[in-house]
Amino acid sequence: MTDIPPDHPRYESLLAREKVAAGVKMGFTSIQGLIAQGRGESFDYLLGERSTESALYAERAAVAALLLAENPVISVNGNVAALAPEKVVALADLTGAKIEVNLFHRTETRMHLIIEQLKACGASEVLGKNPDASLDLSHDRRLVESRGIYSADVVLVPLEDGDRCEKLVEMEKIVITIDLNPLSRTSRMATISIVDNLTRALGNMAKFAGEMRKERKDELVNLITSYDNKKVLSEAISEIQEHLKNLAAEVEY
Ligand code: PTJ
Question: How do residues 11-25 score in pLDDT, each as one tens digit?
Fold first, then answer.
């Protein structure tokens, strides 16, 4: 990985790029993952590279759903394994969620490398290698474990493809997504759509989980019953508009 000086004005963004590129070189991130990261970066620019109010609201609701779930599962793909494996493990520990690797471009080598990466970050068990159940999909993301994603009541699916998100919602699961594009099929299909950068979102969620797991159950239930995902998506778009308006004002003279 190229050393990025911490005082570089684009440090966080360049570091994330290096991590995804390193994931490709090490064989656990797909080459397509580079394109996904580039798309994410451009939406992050439009948002102002910050966790907006609507994202924080969705992140709190998502943590409440994970804490209340009977069988919560965090799904991991090649980009997530490159960008934030330690944050996935921390959030899983704090919420009691299982971790399952689920890949669009599935190979046994990639599955193995990602599982080892998560274990090196402290995960005791990682599902996904021995799928014994199937979602109603025609690609490899259908391959799931019966005690993991298949039977989960709440699934966190960061950097998702809209297809699987739709199927999981049809199975009446609470589906939480993290996707910087508020217009993507994934964001529009999910139960709780977090429009934020994966790294920031998982960090915020781990912090909230540490605080919220001490809260009363009815307070967590309240957060979910009052949650409005349509409002979150429309606010995310407005937050982009507002940010662009401010930028336009700055360049006016
Ligand atoms: O590891 P695999 O084989 O399962 O493949 C994973 C990728 C990510 C390649 C696959 O799921 C894919 O092609 O995803 P898409 O269709 O490119 O969608 C990725 C979405 O995530 C896009 O809407 C991006 O804007 C968004 N995104 C990319 N990077 C980030 C992100 N959102 C949040 N944080 C990011 N760092």
Answer: 888 899 999 999 999
